[in-house]
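ok trying again, last paste got cut off:
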Amino acid sequence: MSVRILIVEDEVKISRFLQLELEHEGYEVETAFDGRKGLEKAQNKEFDVIILDIMLPQLSGMEVCRRVRHENKSVPIIMLTAKDDVSDKVMGLDSGADDYMTKPFAIEELLARIRVAVKRRSNGVADSNRNTIKLGDLILDKERYIVTFKQQNIDLTKKEFDLLAYLMENKNIVLTRDKIVEHVWGYDYMGETNVTDVYIRYLRSKLDQKYGIDLIKTIRGVGYKISDEK
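nice, full thing came through this time. structure:
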């Protein structure tokens, strides 16, 4: 089954160049030339990778990325921009992007990053119905609300389950504390500011400490990620 890629880029020449190169590599490609159309395609079809420009008409790339992520999509997103500004990079990653490239870039580098994204997703996460997420021996069933490790059930509260699901949907991706709160507790959460740290401790006590593993990593000064890599 071919890998499907969505290119959301308003510069027609760049979009066409990327499309031809990716199709030459054997990918199935669709394009959109504004943010609103790109979001519509991302919401209505399944893609393996989205290549998303930041500066778009109708709807910015940041907003498209944020809305796609808000709907729990685990599709890898690679953002493109003409700006070489750290703040843009941070904003893009905070919006939920997995990777970031500044124009002009070498097509070989983009192809390499696409291969990494596709491999990460195929190793990482949801099956075809997007209900079961796997990370090594850890399996989370979103439909039945069940989590197991080596076939042993793990009893989690709803928030613990939601937090673990969010981490697993974004395997190997660093998630900021603010982004975790926004996704798990909602935009209007006004409770304790350390709620993420508290619930991470809860999860670790039920997973890492109980089974002697090291899945949930602390990224000092940033946030957390889940990974089975040493």
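cool. The first strand starts at residue 4 and ends at 8. Residues 132-226 form a domain with the Arc Repressor Mutant, subunit A fold (CATH 1.10.10.10).
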